[in-house]
Specification:
Strand content: under 5%
Structural class: mainly alpha
Distance between the termini: 35 Å
Strand order of the largest sheet: 1-2
Largest sheet: 2 strands, antiparallel
Helix content: 55-70%
Low-confidence stretches: none
Number of strands: 2
Shape: globular
Mean pLDDT: 87
Length: 359
């Protein structure tokens, strides 16, 4: 057992070093690798949201569709606090900026944390009434909350804070690809520690049978509220990361389709699997970009293929997702996590099958 633990630790360190070297190679020539860097950054950000949604849905059994709303809160908070004070007049050029906010500025990490805290505060507030709902009713309530937040942020009453329907721009970009990746890794690691703690075991007990969990002394509402608030905190942080990645945001960025994309990542990776959410995020974001050539006209032998046009990429993408869902209904990882033993066992099974086929 000790040898296996040492082996797993060495392999994990080597994997982390390989990832670091790869990111360093991309960062060394950002002009040539800007496309790959943008895919990695977006995938890392979406992985944080997917894991936070999985914390709520896969590990606690609460089906929430309010992720876009909490991301909007975190994104706007982070954007407002990180926009340089000297360019704010060009951002709030219509209605101006609130005097009390004009000179408030924070570095990226404190702004991200504050954005997460704002999202968590709203989650704690709305969690009091809506967490007494279950299943579809909870999903509808959180979906409605996300739309209310979008309308609230764009309302004229907040023009001097959120810039209303004009949105925010001139948000400082990442200095390197390492910033979003490291922040995302820290967020996911913290959620993983929570899942493996006594609180995480209580969440899983509620997911399996809330009546039995309550009979064992678990306070249902307190633990549901805790899971909801923590999930919303990390969703808010991810919203701030997305705002920095995009450099300009408005309320249209956080429409309900954003929540559906996150839900798709969770389902594809496996409900109840952290590593599945991470893999699903990179597959979804990378796959969407890899299939982009279907949107370009294609001519073979002087004949133009009629299907290759703008929008055909999403048709192919949807078909591939349907195939995956049909044949892997529990997702890529199911409710399991990545382990080195599992990886080696997979190779051994394939080797046995190939040797058996040859025989």
């Amino acid at each position: 057992m000790k040898k296996k633990t040492t082996r797993d630790l060495i392999l994990s360190v080597l994997l982390a070093a390989a990832v670091g070297l790869f990111l360093g190679w991309l960062q060394a020539d950002t002009a040539s690798h800007s496309y790959a860097i943008s895919i990695i950054e977006r995938s890392a950000i979406y992985a944080v949201v997917a894991v936070s949604m999985n914390l709520l849905t896969g590990f606690t059994g609460l089906f929430s569709l309010g992720q876009a709303g909490f991301m909007a809160l975190g994104a706007y908070t982070t954007a407002i606090l990180t926009i340089p004070t000297e360019v704010r007049s060009s951002v709030y050029y219509v209605n101006g900026i609130a005097p009390w906010l004009e000179n408030i500025h924070l570095p990226m990490v404190p702004a991200l944390i504050l954005g997460g805290l704002v999202a968590a505060a709203f989650a704690a507030l709305i969690g009091i009434p809506i967490l007494r709902l279950k299943s579809d009713y909870l999903a509808i309530a959180t979906l409605g909350f996300a739309e209310i937040i979008r309308a609230f942020l764009a309302s004229p009453a907040l023009d001097t804070i959120t810039n209303g329907s004009f949105g925010l721009n001139n948000i400082p970009a990442y200095k390197s690809v390492f910033e979003p990746v490291i922040i995302a890794a820290v967020c996911i690691a913290l959620m993983l520690l929570l899942i493996n703690s006594s609180y995480g075991r209580a969440f899983k007990a509620i997911r399996e049978d809330d009546i039995a969990a309550e009979s064992m002394g678990i306070n249902l509402f307190r633990h549901k509220e805790l899971a909801f608030v923590i999930s919303s905190f990390f969703t808010g942080v991810a919203g701030g990361l997305l705002a920095i990645f995009m450099r300009s945001i408005d309320t249209k960025t956080f429409q309900v389709t954003l929540t559906y994309n996150i839900l798709l990542i969770v389902v594809l990776g496996g409900i109840g699997s952290v590593t599945g959410s991470i893999i699903g995020s990179f597959l979804i974001n990378g796959g969407q970009e890899w299939l982009r050539f279907f949107d370009e006209p294609l001519t073979i032998g002087g004949v133009q293929i009629p299907l290759f046009r703008t929008g055909f990429r999403m048709v192919i993408y949807s078909v591939l997702l349907m195939v995956v869902v049909l044949f892997w209904r529990r997702g890529i990882m199911g409710n399991s996590e990545f382990t080195w033993d599992g990886l080696f066992g997979l190779f051994k099974r394939k080797k046995k099958k190939s040797s058996g086929g040859e025989a």
